[in-house]
Amino acid sequence: MVDDVIIVGAGPGGLSAALQSLRHGLVVRVFERARPGGLLWNANRVENYPGFPNGIPGPDLVRVFLAQAAAGGVDITHEEVLSLTWESGLFHATTPAAVYQARAVVIASGTRQRLLTGFQVPEALRERIVYEVAGFQGLSGNRFLIIGSGDAAFDYALNLGKQNSVIILNRGEQVKCLPLLWDQAQACENIDYHPDTVIRKLEVRPEGGMVVECSSPHGPLVLQADYLVGAIGRDPSLAFVSAELPGQSSELENRGILHFVGDVKNGSFRQTAIAVGDGIRAGMCIAHALKEFADESDRLDRKGRYRPRLHR
Q1: DSSP code, position 101
Q2: What CA–CA distance (Å, rounded) separates 187 from 192?
Q3: Chain-centre distance of CA 112, in angstroms?
Q4: What is this structure's pTM?
């Protein structure tokens, strides 16, 4: 079976593309290797998404999206797309289970974290180095060190700082987050901030957790933590895209059958509302492109010659 649309990723962009495509009567297959909803699971509060004047916690907004997707008939295939190619006029998505084909593709695969570097991680501490905080939102009484200076670092701190002790380590001097997040972090008594502070060494703490040795403007700094959170940036998650596809992407995008939506293409403009708009536009463009192709095919006879339309 050949699907009309394959969508890689079930975050806000992918779900919106699926809903819009289904509204046009297209056959849609959505792949998600992890939990649907993407990075929204980590968000302390989404304050700029229309319809929620008081803001809404990221996990609550995910639940709204998933409820609407289910009501709209979106069915999510929980398989990882290992490769995506364009061959013989169709897209081919290979997963551990099968090879799927489609006439159009939406790549909404989001981003992957940039890994922390510059220090050795003892084997016993590897599971305590993390890059998302969704799994820790119910914890209390823990000590977290967050490395970063942007929106994600401060949003993670606000999320965790409700019931835990948090220290933000900025490897430079400049704070890159929104002034709103800076003010909120400054007002939280559980959040501390250290600029121009760099981790030099990690050691296992006999009582549990870790000892973190840092350099700082005031000399050596020794901290204790239960978890270390990396929030130093993210890159597009595109490892599954075949080496040949980027060379074909301009033509396929111009034809309206290949779309990159959401965080995978938006650089620093990673906002839920932008991803949703990208997804809706992709669904509409694909429906239009496939209809044009169907209309064009309908005008061809079996020998490849055009059949004139009948004007009534």
Answers
A1: E
A2: 10
A3: 8
A4: 0.89
Token digits for 118?
Answer: 């510059």
| Tens-place pLDDT, residues 246-261 | 888 899 999 999 999 9
Across 91-109, b (16+ Cβ under 10 Å) vs e yields bbbbbeeeebbbbbbbbbb
CB atoms within 10 A of CB 17: 34
Question: Which residue, chain included where needed, has tokens 């050795």?
Answer: 120
Phi and psi dihedrals of 109, rounded to 5?
A: -85, 0
Q: What are phi and psi of 195, to 5 degrees?
A: -85, 160
Q: Yes or no: say if 262 and 13 are a contact pair by the CB < 8 Å rule.
A: yes
Per-residue b or e along 247-265, where b marks 16 or more CB atoms closer than 10 Å to that residue's CB: eeeeebeeebbbbbbbbbb
Number of Cβ within a 10 Å radius of residue 305: 8
Residue 96 · residue 79 · CB < 8 Å: yes
Neighbours of 15 (CB within 10 A): 30
- Per-residue pLDDT of 128-185, as tens digits, reads 999 999 989 789 999 999 999 999 999 999 999 999 999 999 999 999 999 999 999 9
Phi and psi for 51 in degrees, rounded to 5?
100, -5
Please give the helix or strand (H or E) that residue 77 lies within, else none.
strand 76-77
Q: Which residues pair with 106 in a beta bridge?
A: 7, 259
- Domains for the chain: give ranges and CATH numbers: 2-113+234-298 (3.50.50.60), 123-230 (3.50.50.60)
